[in-house]
Structure formats: C-alpha cells, structure tokens
C-alpha cells in the first residue's frame, strides 16, 4: 500500500466530512524524505490531531513504521484545515 493512501485511509476513518479530506505528497529538498500534506475540514481538525497531538503522532508512527518495511524514507506529515 502506498503511504499516501495509508494516510488517507486513516484520516478518512477519523473525519466526519470524509469528502473534504485531501492528502497529497510533495517533494522535499532533503534526500530520503517525504512530505505528506493532509487537509481536512475545520470541524475535523480536532478529531484528526487529537488532544495534545496524540492522534497525529500515532498516525506519524504508523506511517513511519510502514515506510521502514518498504523504501525506508523519513516521513513528515503536515495536518491543516481548509
């Protein structure tokens, strides 16, 4: 499974407004690093980030572990609202 698809699956399962979830990969200047940007509706930002960022950190941990099984890139995930 693609890492972007994995992030999208996790975030859509958390969000109320699933149709407004947008997950895209952007190139970085750093070698061996991938940036994934997640955009959600304003109502869903708290659900995706969680209290003190616990859910966001859990998502980052899952995606990083999945990356270590494949191409072993460092993954940065940026979560923002529309």
Report on this structure:
It is a single chain. This protein has 82 residues and is α+β, with helices and mostly antiparallel strands. It has one domain: GMP Synthetase, Chain A, domain 3 (2-Layer Sandwich), CATH 3.30.300.20. It is built from 3 helices and 3 strands; from the N terminus they run H-E-E-H-H-E. The protein has a 3-stranded mixed sheet with strand order 1-2-3. A hairpin with a 6-residue loop joins strand 1 and strand 2. Helix 1 runs antiparallel to helix 3. The protein starts with a helix and ends with a strand.
Short description:
With 82 residues, the chain is α+β, with helices and mostly antiparallel strands. The protein has helices at 3-14, 45-49, 54-69; strands spanning 22-26, 33-40, 74-81.
What brief labels describe this structure?
3 strands, GMP Synthetase, Chain A, domain 3, 3 helices, 82 residues, single chain, alpha+beta, three-stranded mixed β-sheet, globular
Helix content: 40-55%
Poorly predicted spans? none
Q: Tell me the distance between the termini.
A: 27 Å
Please, what is the CATH homologous superfamily? K homology (KH) domain
Rg for CA atoms: 12 Å
What's the pLDDT, averaged over the residues? Answer: 92
Topology, pairings included?
Blueprint: H1 3-14, E1 22-26, E2 33-40, H2 45-49, H3 54-69, E3 74-81
Parallel strand pairs: 2-3
Antiparallel strand pairs: 1-2
Helix pairs in contact: 1-3
């Amino acid at each position: 499974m693609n890492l972007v698809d994995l992030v999208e699956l996790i975030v859509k399962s958390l969000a109320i407004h699933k149709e407004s979830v947008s997950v895209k990969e952007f190139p970085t200047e750093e070698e061996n690093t991938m940036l994934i940007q997640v955009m959600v509706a304003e109502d869903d930002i708290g659900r995706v980030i969680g209290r003190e960022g616990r859910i966001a950190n859990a998502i980052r941990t899952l995606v990083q572990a999945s990356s270590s099984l494949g191409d072993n890139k460092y993954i940065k995930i940026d979560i923002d609202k529309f």
